[in-house]
Amino acid sequence: MNTPTLLLYDRKIVHVDMDCFYAAVEMRDNPAFLGQPLAIGGPSDRRGVLSTCNYEARKFGVRSAMPTGQALKLCPHLRVVPGRMSVYKEVSEQIREIFSRYTDKIEPLSLDEAYLDVTDSTQCSGSATLIAKDIRTAIENELHLTASAGIAPLKFIAKIASDLNKPNGQFVVRPDEVAGFVEKLALSKIPGVGKVTIRKLHAMGLRCGADVQEFGHVALVEQFGKFGQSLWERAHGIDPRPVVTTRDPKSVGIERTFSRNIRHFDECWAAIVEQFPELERRLARKLEDREVTKLGVKMKFADFQQTTVEHQYDRLELEPFQQLLTQAMARQHAREIRLLGIYVGLRPKRKTEQLSLI
Ligand code: TTP
Ligand code: MG
User: Fold this and answer.
1) Cα angle at 138 between 137 and 140, to 5 degrees?
2) Within a 13 Å sphere around the CA of 62, how many CA atoms are in the beta-carbon half?
3) Given ligand 1 and candidates 52, 81, 146, which is best to mutate, with the most ligand atoms within 8 Å of its CB?
4) Helical packing angle, 217-224 and 226-235, nearest 10°
5) Would you tell me which of 28, 68, 149, 251 could form a disulfide with 48, CB atoms 3.0–4.6 Å apart?
6) Measured between alpha carbons, how far is 93 from 84 in angstroms, rounded to an integer?
């Protein structure tokens, strides 16, 4: 197979990745950690390892997945704190809610990163670069955390690019820059190329995309089989993988965490009235062939306990939310409310419809 001469790059993919995610959440919620080396992980006396650390700690060589004992040798004044998974999950949902303002085509890879296909998005005059900037600004203003982004016509390049201006930056690879980008690309940067593979590739004199191009398709597939095929593709700027979203969402909703907790019915109702038009817009985007089955209210209290109330309805209207809200508030028991959301349940697609989609 020869080098492809004409490739059509007609997609706009954004990869968003939070900066030192768990550590950033801890620094946000406890300003005493600001400016100090901080890691999240298990204690050294129980052979703990680190999940991650902030950028101050990285200056000392501390890294994710490092044993806590080793990290403390590199950086004796490192603060090591246990993680708070429920908070990270909540923040992750909030980030996804911000993504969903721009597109439905969201593929989360983990709590802190996702691919977005913004090819058909109309915001920011359709500029993926500006959409990425907007998303990062919303994350910073609303969640007080920073994210980095990569923008490219292919998934794997968008992912590599989100690392290039980290933290709190973004990097764009335009369609006409892809060829130059992959030629110079160190193979170790390609997602899925692990330590063992890279040693093997280096031993064969393969270090960057241009080396792979020279090596040739037949030899690569002979040596590496299926992996050789994908490596050849990546080195030629080919990545046909679409952004895979949940095919059949069971519900569509909107939620908001308040900048200060609220307590009274009127405040909650005002928030719901404000959220309602956006829920209508999101439902219209999804509805086409789907039927509404129920409406619901989600409420999270200051102690992080959560409750939902839902009833069967066959269409989206504002009025039923009054009753749902009243029922949710009956479970308040004097607690303040930190988050409120409204959602619509959807009937699952029938099997035959699903088959015809494939
Ligand atoms: P990453 O995005 O890999 O790392 P990060 O967000 O901490 O830092 P960066 O700025 O380089 O993106 O992972 C996201 C979260 O996943 C991280 O905050 C903690 C968790 N994690 C682990 O628990 N174990 C691991 O080995 C890694 C790499 C991450
Ligand atoms: Mg990250």
Assistant:
1) 65
2) 33
3) 52
4) 140
5) 68
6) 15
Q: Is the CB of 196 under 6 A from ligand 1?
A: no
Ligand that lies nearest to the alpha carbon of residue 110, given by its number in the listed order: 1
Q: What is the pLDDT of residue 5?
A: 58
280 in catalytic set: no
| Cis amide bond preceding 348, omega within 30 | no
Question: What's the rounded Cα separation, in Å, for the pair 237 and 239?
Answer: 7
Give the span between the Cα atoms of 304 and 248, in whole angstroms.
28
Q: What is the pLDDT of residue 290?
A: 79
Q: Is the pLDDT of residue 355 over 60?
A: no
For 5-51, the pLDDT digits (tens) are 567 899 999 999 999 999 999 999 999 999 999 999 988 788 899 99
Note residues around ion ligand 2 (Cβ under 5 angstroms): 17-18, 21, 112
Q: Of 56, 113, 233, 310, which residue is the catalytic one?
A: 113
Percentages (nearest 5) of helix, strand, coil residues in the chain = 45, 20, 35
pLDDT of 249:
77
Contact 302, 235 (CB under 8 A): no
Q: What's the CA gap between 123 and 102, in Å, rounded?
A: 7
Give per-residue burial for 181-209: e unless 16+ CB within 10 Å, then b.
Answer: bbbebebebbeebeeebbeebeeeebebb
pLDDT of residue 348: 78
pLDDT in tens, 72-124: 999 999 999 999 999 999 999 899 989 998 998 999 999 999 999 999 999 99
321, 297 contact by CB (below 8 A): yes
Token pair listed for 235: 């080195």
Whole-model pTM: value is: 0.80
Residue whose structure tokens are 């700690």: 57
